Amino acid sequence: MELTEALLVYRPLLATGFGIAALLALILRARMNAFAALLLVSIFSALAAGMAPEQAFDTLAKGLGGTLGFIATVIGLGALFGAILQASGALDALASKLSTSSSFKTNQWKIAGIGLLASTPVFFDVALIILAPLILTMAHDRLKPAMSLGLPLMAGLAVGHAFLPPTPGPIAIAELIGADLGWVILFGAITGCVALAVSGPLFAAFLEQRNRMPIGNPAFELDETSNHTTRPIPQPERAIFLITLPLVLILLGTLAGILPDGPIKYVLEIIGHPFSALLIACGASWLLLYPKTVQSRKLMSDAMARAFEPTGAVILVTGAGGAFKQVLVDTGAGEQIANAALGLGFGPLLAGYVLAVILRLAQGSSTVAMITSAGLTAPIVAMADLSAPQLGIVAIAIAAGATTGSHVNDSGFWLVGRIFGITPGETLRTWTVSTTLISVVGFLMCLILYAALALF
Question: 43 in a domain, yes or no?
Fold first, then answer.
């Protein structure tokens, strides 16, 4: 094949390669907003691949609309659900339950579990700021470094943020590769629990045994708790029930597929859809956590009014990721990527993980890494003809890859250092290693689960 002919044949693939390089340059060098950068690169890739302008913009609109029709609703309801839990004090009550007479090591495991539950309805940074005062107080009372409890907490938050819907990342991955949310929740919970144990309490114990846990100089302001001293505190059991409610409903909706037709299957399919499950969770939260005082009702009202502010950017970035994916499909670049990956022996599981790791380390944002790598992996998944459970495992593998190696280009890296008063070097030796453990252990668990499915 002559060079000119080869360039024409692989024009879509080359356009995509240059587009990804441009995306990284725009985000890292030009500091461009991720939504604008993804949209601009999608347009460039479509035109460079040979699409007519009208066809290119039709493709973008199709990708945006097809993705946001589901994503925007789920993320919006998830944000509303999280706002109710946060403003009601349910998360504070659940965390305070830990400050009992339990041993310090037991509390490390409890804190990890709280992090896992708390990050499911609330963003990572929000949950960390909410729970940090309690962690710092508990560590101070036990004369322990704050990071001794901070690492298990943050590992739980990171695992919940990456592996368990209704957080935006796994929802976006599932939508882009066509995975069922029920399977994503099931395998995310299995994988996440193992990854959390290794990267949180066990890693913290490892550092403590070798006197490598940084002492830090926490400078976190405790104003967040003082504002709510007069607020009635709900029972922590209610928080556990409400957080797990939508996850259980979605799982039931997935399992309804194996039932024979009838009224039970009909009802489970309704209440188990993510829209219905989150609406039910929001309604139950409102009924069980309804504020009793005027001040509490005002706090709840303000929180609900602000609930959608942090989700807007995530929704738009996800939509732009859907547009990029559609460009890959319509230009034929996705098929060429899939053929190249399969030719190198990269199946969807390994390809999704490696792409997510590269994008995460290159530009810092785990959400952008999840969305972009899911779009690139989608054509490989389509050609592999995977079952629904296998798709769920691939989604978790991508999420695991996008969690790895939080370092200096990640805003969360600096937030951790500021809250716990540790140096960048200490943050690298603790938080960065912890997120890498989540990624590696998570991927190993995905390999085991994927192999186990092949036996049945």
Answer: no
